[in-house]
Amino acid sequence: MSKLLLLGSGELGKEICISAKRLGCTVVACDSYPDAPAMQVADSNYVFDMLDSDKLKHVITVTNPDYIVPEIEAIRTEELLAQELLGKVVVPNAKAVNLTMNRDKIRDHASSLGLKTAKYNYATTELELEKAVGGIGFPCIVKPVMSSSGKGQSMIHDEKEIQNAWITAVKGMRGDRQKVIVEQFIEFDYEITLLTIRQHNGPTLFCQSIGHVQQGGDYRWSWQPAHIVPKTGAHPIEQEARRVAKIITDDLGGAGLFGVEFFVLNGEVIFSELSPRPHDTGMVTLYTQAQNEFDLHVRALLGLPIPSIKLIRPGASHVILAEHDADDFKISGLNEALAEPDVDVRIFGKHQARPNRRMGVILAPNVDKAKQAARKIKIKPSI
To answer: How far is CA 108 from CA 81, 258, 271, 286, in A?
Structure first.
């Protein structure tokens, strides 16, 4: 029986844990706060700051896992590099985790491989940000090099907005790197995520691409398939996305699922970001695929066979967001949402609500039905 040490216990970690438990694994879930979603289904848990190298090393030592499975960005990745040298298995590997936990490292790496990206620059002070913005031009996007769920991200339209963008980025940073990336704003036609699976003993596999919409830098809804695949073969956008995804994931190496994000503009595929783990937009696969993204990640890291990836039906997902700060809240509208045919609801089990925090997800046959169901569910402070 394999033991997984899950570093990060949010909604994605919860589904990884469920998939692993179904295959007989023992799961130890870790996060910085108690009773996080994955902890509710894991065998045991630890609460600590994963940016603290000594504490991370201690937990790895006392748990002695077969696999270390990162699920969030705020991890002292240098310790994972050290642990890998000592023989520990990091998923997909420590190099991939270290590069992708930092937007600057993965963007530079993608550029070094010749992948097309938006123009970008970096800044570590407000003065440097002014210079970086001048080199990119307006409008542009400012993001911390380490953050999640759109935190710290803003769009700058003129010089007056630079100071606020810097303040927003600093407040939204995760970890201890005070650095931002400034990106050219691309008026893309749409965005896609390509779930890419590297195996220990087998070819690289791909799920059908997932279309998604972000607001405030964070995913709001997604759908799969993103493209109608012609009977004559793969969609040309799909083919190019697969080519690019294979280049960068082959270079990173290891085994597991990668979420590779692209902008699509006038039929051209532009690399955006990459996560070496299941992707939030991929929650739609809980509805659409015979093996969802979490099942595929666990199979790949364990070296189990993946004979094929089957889309069993089209579908969509839509997040359920909190609107208020609340330690004690009620969720209403479940009856109304679930009364709709072919609609499912997943509540994540987070015990604290705050504005725009993801508290659950709707799974439905299409985007319209997912949106309608999401509107029916409300998360309100208890009175």
So the answer is: 19, 18, 12, 33
For this structure, is 148 an active site residue? yes
Catalytic residue among 209, 281, 288, 317: 281
The CATH number for 315-381, chosen from 2.60.40.10, 3.40.190.10, 3.90.1170.50, 3.40.50.10140, is 3.90.1170.50
Is 79 annotated in the active site? Answer: no
* Model confidence pLDDT, tens digit, residues 86-99: 999 999 999 999 99
Please say if the pLDDT value at position 147 is more than 90.
no
31, 79, 261, 295: which is the annotated catalytic residue?
A: 261
Q: What is the rounded (10 degree) CA torsion for 97, 100, 102, 108? A: 130
* Active-site annotation holds for 217: no
Question: Model confidence over 300-310: pLDDT tens digits?
Answer: 999 999 999 99
Q: Residue 128: which of 108, 104, 112, 151 has the closest Cα?
A: 104
Active-site pick, 11, 71, 280, 295: 280
Domain 3-90: give its CATH architecture: 3-Layer(aba) Sandwich (3.40)
The yes-or-no answer on residue 73 being catalytic is: no
Q: What is the pTM of this model?
A: 0.94
Q: What is the mean pLDDT of residues 207-219?
A: 93
Catalytic residue among 150, 202, 217, 349: 150
344 is known as an active-site residue:
no
CA distance 109 to 103: 10
